[in-house]
Amino acid sequence: MGFDLSSIEDYVANHLRMFIFSVIGLVIFVGIITVTVFFIAVRGEEQTMVPDVVGKELTEAMLELQVKELYPRIQLRFTQTSRDKGYILEQDPTPGTIVKAGRRIKLVVSQGVILNKVEEYISRNIDEVRMELLTLQSESGSAALFTIKEPMEYKSSSDRAGTIIEQKPEPGTAISGPITLEFVVSSGRDNQTVTVPQLTGLQFSQALDIISGTGINFKFTARQRNDGETGETIVAQQPASNNTVPLNTIVQITVTNPDKVADNERFGLFRYTIPPNPYPLPVRLSALLPSGTEQRIISVNYSGGEFTAPYKLPVGSVLILRMMDRELYRETVQ
Fold first, then answer.
1. Which mean pLDDT values do the consecutive 10-residue runs of the chain (334 residues) have?
2. CA atoms of 42 and 317, how far apart (whole Å)
3. Is residue 165 located within the same domain as residue 202?
4. Range of the domain at 55
5. Are the beta carbons of 269 and 232 closer than 8 angstroms?
6. Global pTM?
7. Which of these, 82, 91, 81, lies nearest to 58 by C-alpha position?
8. Is residue 233 part of a domain?
9. Residues 275 and 326 sit within 8 Å (Cβ to Cβ)
10. Is residue 165 part of a domain?
11. Do both 328 and 234 map to the same domain?
């Protein structure tokens, strides 16, 4: 039996062509996949605008960047004051630049002052400086580098009450260890006067608003109303309105009880003795209502002594007295 050589050659040729076409097809397929992956990889990502975070705290800045799908690259820098510690000093790219999402934004963050010399505190408010030094100690987690000598010396001056007018050690003094700061603080001008406002005839809530803006010292008393009088009204004041009196003069104010009070309400006088201060400090009396809303009753600068204010509030309200945002006292309306 003989073999057909031509048939064998045709068979081999056909399979060779099929193999070559298969290889070419595979190469083309791989090429298509490669090109597709390449274009997916280099395809432009979503673009976003860089926000302006200079002057903001680091936490706030990071939240703003997160919203824009941007990420911070942080660089720390010492500055000339501790007041900007934790705030953004510079950023790159600049605000308004259009970049791809996922871009890293360089943030230069203040590390505060290098504590190698005493800062200048003159012309600054003593309460702000006190809080700054407490914050500095808390952040360092170490023993206090600065302490303030107590009691401080107060002098009358044309500077606003509470302003530091002298300091020891002098600004720029080198720091080699813990330092005691001695301050002389302004108590305001001597012989300051105030004009007593017209309060008689007003509802007590109106009177409280006027007192908030005048800075007078005051003391409320309450009594039953007489015939012809209206409840919850100022019926007497001493000294009388339009008199010019020394700033520390206490204006005696009489308010009448309400005509009637609902079963779920109470009318009363809030009383609390505030320790005396060398100059008036911000005092705020507010009420936390059962609904959860906080209602202001009076905000005033007060130098100390008995603090009184009338109120008419729902039962269960909580009266809160604060001085410089620090809570002094609270009581519940029964």
1. 57 68 74 65 70 94 93 86 84 94 93 78 91 74 75 88 93 87 89 90 95 88 93 96 89 95 95 90 94 95 93 97 92 96
2. 63
3. no
4. 51-113
5. no
6. 0.56
7. 91
8. yes
9. no
10. yes
11. yes
